[in-house]
Amino acid sequence: MATIERRENSKGVVSYRAKVRVRGEAPRTKTFLRKTDAQKWANKIESDLGHGVYVATTADRRRTLSELIDKFLVEYLPIKPNNRSADKIQSHLAWWKDQAGYVTLDKLTPATIAGFKSKLSGRKKKNGEPLSGATVNRHLASLSAVTKWAWKELGWLPSNPILSVSKASESTGVIRFLSDGERKALLRVCKASDDANIYCAVMLALATGARYSNIRFLTWADVDLDRWTLLFKTTKNGEARYMPVVGPAQVILQAQFDCDPTGVGFVFKGRSDDAPVDLDRAWRKVRKAAELQDFRWHDLRHTTASYMTMNGASLAEVAEALGHRTLVMAKRYSHQTGEHVRGTLDRMAAAYLGDDE
Predict the structure, then answer these.
(1) Of the candidates 301, 296, 292, 287, which has an alpha carbon nearest to the alpha carbon of residue 134?
(2) Closest by Cα among 159, 209, 203, 154 to 183
(3) Checking CA distances to 339, which of 105, 237, 259, 318 falls within 20 to 30 Å?
(4) CA 195 to chain centre
(5) Is the pTM here over 0.70, yes or no?
């Protein structure tokens, strides 16, 4: 029910505070100078609440995105499932907090977020180029994790506003993978590197197609040197899976184990046995030494998939090896090389294009 309370301050100014109470909802209050305005507001809020329409509370109008992000980082991110990208999420959220932290939750609408997305899209990288569509979308995804949590678990938002914000266009250009010469050069400098981890890490990445996080956080408990398998407990799609280790990667992985004084903990150790090493620094050094242009760690995964298709692997086999749930990504690799249709064309040519004379 709605009530209107007449108030008068020390200077004799009269105001009217409207208060609406609906069972199961927090009380809504607002003060007006005219009683008729207070009554109109109270009638509308009472009607909206009765029909299940979201109405911002006083707390919603005071809570800011900055407060929500801080709460997310402390309470939810540390226990978030599939949390190997926590450092990237923190980096993305730092941008949102810096640029949009002042926005109160009642004003955190799709239109507001779209405005900040446009601002983000206009940012320049160190080399002067604009941010890629993929980078913009990763920033949106990190914020979406926050707003989804606020909506579903905290009840601080009526819905996830990110779902109504269009994504930036991402490049579908040629997938970068190593040529034979580039592969040989990269492995040569990795082997000669003074870093104790990079040669084995790169070889495992190429031999398995595993993502950076799976390689970096691999432990000896996940390695079976008898059956030559790796167990990836946490993957992007949330499903644990075994990956065979084949060819020269077996020898290199065995050497990595033999050189480990403990034989326990992370395969690629950092400053202590309890922390994995950050492979990025060593990776950048060997990449530069091998003179690889426009090549990222993730392109090692692209290389594995591309090599598989060039050696006759089916789309289903590529998808299974890389842990894709659908064939969509596998099609990208096969389309780059054309090998997925070579067998079909060869059979057609043999049957119809031969010399009949």
Answers:
(1) 296
(2) 203
(3) 237
(4) 28
(5) no
